[in-house]
SgcJ/EcaC family oxidoreductase
Amino acid sequence: MNTTTILTTVLDAWKAGVDAHDPEAVADVFTADAIFQGLHPYSIGPTGVAEYYASQPLGMKADYKILESRQLTDDLVLGYLKVAFSFTDRPTLEVFLSILAQDNDNTWKIAHYQVSKLG
């Protein structure tokens, strides 16, 4: 599997959870010890991810574009993306996202997630 396919598989599952406002589905895309840095203080693991996405407004949607990807090891892929979070009541927020996707028993999950407003 190439890096784009790996990242797309993981990110499509993440996007589906975000778009459905299903924090548990989003959290399921992360490893048990994932480092998660959204636009609030960081957390470790899926519980913090679920809490973060539960606090997001209803109707928020995510669209992403993979800008760069690298296969770091057989079980680790780096992705750098541009993400547009759209809302029903405010302007779209464009951010940059770096993730590390890790192969956990033939299931790729996010082990590190860091958002930046800077490009």
